[in-house]
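Input (structure):
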């Protein structure tokens, strides 16, 4: 395949546990390329964690355009991994390679990702490997589109990246930070929030902040509370708490069912300035109301049949009403007037 001479980046993070004043500190090593060092993702993540009351120690080994194979022959990278000084490695490949066609991916990419993954786990027995899922170019990779059709658009390139990063995590018993899914969700909901920089590949500062939010949630298995950007915080929290999201979110509608359900399973009607929800359900279940920061505001039980749910306790603002039962689930965005 013809390759483009653009700077790309891979990311690896490692965390080592230290106890200081009763607080756990995780030591993080980022290993990658320009997708890491543009906008200083390591220190952005460190600041996000500090704002949530957690401490990270970060360092990085980055090289423009680095691939997994590059780091497998980089003595600095190998020595850092072999030092056994980390809790978590967050690892990411060159921006195109994880979306390569099947044979090329399994010959040129997969073995080197596995080598780095295995080396880390051998030297850090209690460590975790987290794959940093990247995103498609804003308009796809038009130079290589002629060779491989999934490269022809942002959505199909993102889907290939998502599928293959997920494959790494599943095959190697590791984890994935679904940054690429968060980008798809954000762009699908509000494309005026610009995540791609002017080169249509690297992240803007907002794109880097969203990546840091997703990584924080993945590392700590938590959701953000105090993050500064409420929209990006909601996207990160939503992405990391909805494991059923697929790899192509081009037509995803956050206001409709978030699982495969019959639309007739629930009927939701908003009454009296959206202070009362009238729910007609075919089964017992529960409802949860989230604000757009991803924070749960309230929850309660749903009975089979029709019932009214009083939400007058909510302040004025925008919320997501999520309802689920053994028949499925759905979500609706609403504004309390």
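Output (sequence):
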């Amino acid at each position: 395949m013809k390759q483009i001479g653009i700077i790309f980046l891979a990311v690896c993070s490692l965390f080592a546990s230290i106890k200081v004043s009763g607080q756990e500190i995780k030591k993080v090593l980022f290993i990658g390329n320009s997708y890491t060092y543009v906008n200083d993702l390591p220190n952005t993540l460190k600041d996000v964690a500090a704002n949530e009351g957690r401490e990270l120690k970060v360092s990085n080994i980055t090289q423009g355009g680095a691939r997994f194979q590059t780091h497998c022959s980089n003595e600095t990278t190998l020595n850092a991994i072999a030092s056994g000084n980390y809790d978590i490695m967050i690892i990411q490949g060159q921006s195109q390679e994880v979306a390569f066609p099947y044979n090329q991916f399994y010959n040129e990419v997969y073995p080197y990702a596995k080598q780095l993954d295995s080396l880390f786990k051998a030297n850090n027995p209690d460590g975790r490997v987290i794959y940093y899922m990247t995103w498609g170019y804003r308009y796809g990779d038009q130079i290589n589109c002629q060779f491989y059709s999934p490269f022809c658009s942002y959505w199909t390139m993102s889907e290939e990246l998502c599928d293959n990063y997920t494959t790494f995590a599943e095959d190697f018993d590791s984890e994935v930070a679904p940054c690429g899914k968060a980008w798809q969700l954000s762009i699908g909901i509000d494309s005026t929030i610009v995540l791609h920089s002017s080169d249509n590949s690297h992240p803007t500062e907002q794109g880097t902040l969203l990546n840091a939010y997703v990584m924080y949630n993945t590392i700590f298995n938590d959701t953000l509370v105090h993050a500064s950007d409420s929209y990006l915080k909601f996207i990160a929290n939503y992405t990391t708490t909805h494991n059923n999201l697929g790899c192509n979110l081009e037509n995803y509608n956050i206001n409709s069912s978030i699982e495969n359900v019959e639309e007739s399973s629930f009927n939701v009607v908003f009454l009296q300035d959206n202070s009362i929800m009238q729910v007609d359900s075919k089964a017992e279940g529960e409802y949860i109301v989230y604000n757009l920061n991803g924070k749960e505001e309230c929850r309660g039980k749903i009975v089979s049949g029709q019932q009214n749910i009083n939400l007058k306790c909510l302040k004025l603002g925008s919320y997501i009403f999520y309802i689920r039962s053994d028949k499925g689930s759905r979500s609706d965005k609403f504004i309390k007037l």
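Notes: The first strand starts at residue 17 and ends at 20. The longest helix spans residues 154-171.
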